[in-house]
Amino acid sequence: MNNSFDYSNIKPLTLAIPSVSAKWTGNDFANAVKVRWGIGRNNSKITPGIYKIGNPNSQSDIFVSANYKLSFDILRKNLNAFDAWILVIDTKGVNVWCAAGKGTFGTENLVRSINKNSIKDIVTHRRLIVPQLGAVGVAAYKIMELTGFRVIFGPVRASDISEFVKAGYKATPGMRRVDFPFYERAKLIPVDLVYWKYRLIAALFVVFLFSGLDRSGFLFSKMFQTSLFPVLNILTGYFAGIVITPLLLPVFPVRAFSLKGALCGLIFIAILNWFFIAPTIERIALGLIGIAVASFTALNFTGATTYTSLSGVKLEMKWAIPFQIGFAAVGLLLFIISKLI
Amino acid sequence: MQYLRNVATLKLNTGLCTGCRLCVIVCPHAVFEIENKKALIANIDNCMECGACALNCQFGAIYVKSGVGCASGILNGILNNTEPTCGCTGTGAKESSCC
Fold first, then answer.
1. Residues of B with Cβ-Cβ distance to A141 under 8 angstroms
2. C-alpha neighbours within 13 Å on the C-beta side of residue A46
3. So where are chain B's domains?
4. Domain spans in chain A, listed from the N-terminal domain onward
5. CB atoms within 10 A of CB B6
6. Residue A98 and residue B99: Cβ atoms within 8 Å?
7. What's A119's DSSP letter?
8. Which CATH number does A7-176 carry?
9. What is this model's ipTM?
């Protein structure tokens, strides 16, 4: 073998490590759109392990990621100018922040992953860049104790990584803040819209069916003739709570999500009423149901926000849920009465 | 954006604080500030009880009852008689920056 290539610097271990590109393919874009609509979410996983991006060596940085495909894709896209390693830990296909809350993106799992992938043989330095939101599950001092690696908490957003590294692994206060701007809220709407579909259909079916109630019993013709307004009330409440409330979140001058939703529902149902002629009792009945739907779905948006606390949501639910159930129950009762008088 | 006032369970024992700044680094809502080489809770109503500060305080100076501030997660917890769990895994998984 007369070959000038120097094999002595290359360990077989690193040769076998798969490379990934920073570029997104059409499939990656399609995946990003699909998971936002809740399609194939549970199969959107990356095989855990160590990956190369560019041509990393024993001095190159190691970035830690979850094995949710979208998390990994966003990270590698932002490492386009890097020669680095990506350590993907098994979070069961859940993103970093949520997995950290559940403990899968956690100290124990990271230590296991460092050992299993022989990270100490791949690099000579002892630093790991962990996304800041991973700090919910990863105790930096324990990683140091157990593996000798110093955890550097990177910025919240992968798009700040390049600047963060250039600044000597220092994040500006802005890079450390989680905000919740319009487009972030908008991105979360499709999944919620799809998430409640069966309960929506059930609610629509109930008012559709009850529309046919009559003093004489049940009339199919009445059901078909009068069910449009009730169905639209439910749909209006649903869209007010799931679409409009999140979009206009800071516009409603109250802090409780159930109140934001109720307010939004009230406004849109008032508009709906302007277009329809119906007995007052039926308007009130359906309004109460629609507002309850808007209030409940808006309250559920707390699960998608980046700033609501467990104690706060618990406190809000204590008074909001009884009100919502009350509104819906009274509304349904009045609706039935309006059909029988 | 801020959620309800005066509900966060976050507590800081300044006596144990060494001013290592890690709480300032990991907090996503700038709850902490450093003054005279010690941490202080500057914006308690910003706290979302994620627990990152308490987990990363090796001196045990921070307490917070952490968990997911998620209504359906809390409902799941009540219905299944467990701690609040976010519906991030399993069918109908929710997408968000948190879960």
1. 56, 58
2. 28
3. 11-63, 68-94
4. 7-176, 182-340
5. 9
6. yes
7. H
8. 3.40.50.11600
9. 0.86
